[in-house]
Specification:
Aminopeptidase, single chain
């Protein structure tokens, strides 16, 4: 295997810390803020995220992750899964969800049954090698295997680099929600829901 070329494999439980680090990069501050709310005295937010990623179940489990690796190093990650259809209880609970998260959850509820790219990130030193593009291709392969006919994801409107990346790869904006300004992230306008049909 050529160590200068990335290869891709399903994450393992012992990859949980790298998974958490990449979730934090993809979430642009939101994951660390949420993890800090659940941290015990003296516990770092990243430790909380690592424990979540190490779980065997739940959306943020390592079981929903594909890693990109270069040699022995983790270079990037895809966290994706099929979105369930919200039930009446889920919809009734929307007003109780913190304002920071409510727009994101509302948009998820618009695309039940889609294969949701919750997080896609590449460590800075490995960018520009086509890893993000390859991970998107992996998302489509996993979506097909899960029986989904579309992919979905969210991006902050002000994150132009990410927004243009997804538009170049066939995603289109189908909905949006205003967001509340918060110290944990650098945005203040809106979050966009993008989808792409799986064809062929």
């Amino acid at each position: 295997m050529n160590p200068s070329l990335p290869f891709y494999r399903a994450a393992r439980r012992d990859d949980a810390r790298a998974v958490a680090q990449l979730i934090e990069i993809a979430g642009e501050g939101i994951p660390s803020f949420l993890w800090s709310q659940n941290a015990e005295a003296g516990q770092a937010p990243l430790d909380v995220g690592t424990a979540r990623a190490a779980r065997e179940d739940g959306n943020f489990s390592y079981r929903n992750v594909v890693l990109a690796r270069l040699g022995d190093a983790v270079a990037g990650m895809l966290l994706a899964y099929r979105l369930p259809r919200p039930d009446a209880g889920d919809l009734a609970a929307l007003p109780e969800i913190p304002a920071l998260l409510r727009p994101l959850v509302e948009l998820e509820y618009q695309v039940p049954g889609s294969f949701y790219v919750n997080a896609l990130a590449v460590f800075p030193q490995y960018r520009g090698r086509g890893i993000g593009r390859a991970l998107l291709t992996t998302a489509e392969e996993r979506a097909r295997a899960a029986g989904c006919d579309s992919l979905s994801l969210q991006v902050f409107a002000e994150n132009e680099r990410a927004r243009l990346f997804y538009l170049r790869h066939g995603y289109g904006v189908v909905d949006r929600r205003p967001i509340v300004a918060h110290p944990c992230y650098p945005y203040s306008t809106e979050v966009l829901l993008l989808t792409r049909l799986i064809t062929g």
